[in-house]
Amino acid sequence: MYQSKITGVGHYLPEEVLTNNQLSEIMDTTDEWITERTGIKERRIYKENEDRVSTMGARAAYKALEMAGINKNEVDMIVFATLSPDYYFPGSGVLMQREMGINGIPAIDIRQQCSGFVYGISVADQYIKTGMCKKVLVVGSEIHTNAFEYTNRDRHVSVIFGDGAGCALLERAEEGEESAVLSTHIHSDGTHAEELAAKHPGSVSKIRCSNEMLEAGALLPNMNGQLVFKNAVQRFPEVIKEALEYNNLKPSDIDLLIPHQANLRISQFVQKLMRLGDDKIFNNIQKYGNTTAGSIPIALSEAVQEGKVKKGDLLCLAAFGSGFTWASTLVRW
Ligand code: UT7
Question: How far apart are CA 218 and CA 200, in angstroms?
Fold first, then answer.
């Protein structure tokens, strides 16, 4: 069995900023409500005709390749995580591939929402471990801001989400090398599938999209926030502990925890429970909101850019989200 390691990371964020105060001018919300409940102050909005989920993913991927010093033609697989694909089908992986001009290699789309990036790491890791691949791009990219109306009926969901993309390049590690993806742990449970979902357009309804559905708000993403919150604060610590125990490590061994940026209160709850100092957790939800599959690779890339990750550090990436799905990975940098 081979081992994989992360050799490059990159992210792309659209330039335009949408602040809580701007939101409060167009809908019934306040900066105080959003900040107090979520920690979010602002988020980014994609630019129509310029940003697509696939092209944003490609921009993040080029940065990851640049950091690793790898030519795009050396990549032997793309794993693309998103819940907001460019098209209903085909998936955004092939569109990113076309954009980058690296046709012929496999492109796999992952539909695991907020856990999509960590699921993607797990898939890439398995392919590298078995020797099937040597260099895999794992992307998380999302455009959320065009999914909402920004009116009272979606204010409990719309204020949370933002747009952005991140990417990691996984490569086969040399034998005996310290840098490695130590393990990945992925879970799902469909019991509460509809409690955080965009059900339409879907094949469940005879007419996939109608004026009646639009008027009833059936196309808007919906979330039972309190149920999701309760499950998140249970599953995050559980899946982090699972990874630590699997590797005979303790919470105090973690140099940097990068949780999916769902809600600052959830991250702070996990931080307190695991007794991690403020320098042992990375949060950027304040600036970008929840970018679902994009959130962990954006945060990882930003943490690296800010010099918060050193060679030999133990990183823990952990996620929880729609499905419900939850996942973690421990990475020796
Ligand atoms: O990434 C996937 C994972 N997602 C998560 O982990 C999200 C987990 N859930 C949460 O983070 C929280 O549930 C939210 C931040 C989404 C909501 O916070 P909450 O404390 O659960 O609020 P709530 O939905 O129970 O609403 C409380 C009140 C309601 O008013 P009443 O009924 O008490 O009068 C809402 O109508 O806040 C009202 N409200 C708002 N007020 C101002 C809901 N949305 C807003 C808003 N601005 N945007």
Answer: 7
Q: What is the pLDDT of residues 114-148, one digit of tens each?
A: 999 999 999 999 999 999 999 999 999 999 999 99
Q: Is 9 in the same domain as 40? A: yes
Q: How many C-beta atoms lie closer than 10 Å to residue 290's C-beta?
A: 23
Other Cβ atoms less than 10 A from the Cβ of 258: the count is: 28
Strands 107-110 and 77-81: what pairing?
parallel
> Has 114 been annotated as catalytic?
yes
Q: Is the CB of 231 under 6 A from ligand 1?
A: no
Quote the CA–CA distance of 103 and 56 in Å, as a whole number.
Answer: 18
72 plus 147 within the same structural domain: yes
Active site residue 192: no
Please give the number of the atom of ligand 1 that sits closest to the Cα of 23. 48
| pLDDT tens-digit map of 176-226 | 899 999 999 999 999 999 999 999 999 999 999 999 999 999 999 999 999
Strands (E), 13-132: 16-19, 42-45, 77-81, 107-110
pTM of the prediction?
A: 0.97
Compute, in angstroms, the gap from residue 303 CA to the centroid of ligand 1: 29
Residues 17 and 139 reside in one and the same domain: yes
The answer, yes or no, to whether any atom of ligand 1 lies below 6 A from the CB of 232, is: yes
Q: How far is the CA of 156 from the centre of ligand 1 (A)?
A: 5
Does ligand 1 have an atom closer than 6 angstroms to the CB of 63? no
Dihedral, CA atoms, 148, 151, 153, 158, nearest 10 degrees?
40
